[in-house]
Amino acid sequence: MIKLTGRLVCKSAEEADIVRQYLPEHKELTREETGCVSFEVTETADPMIWKVEELFTNQATFDAHQKRTKNSVWGRETSMIAREYEIPEIE
Question: Which parts of the sequence belong to the ABM domain (predicted)?
Answer without folding.
Answer: 13-68
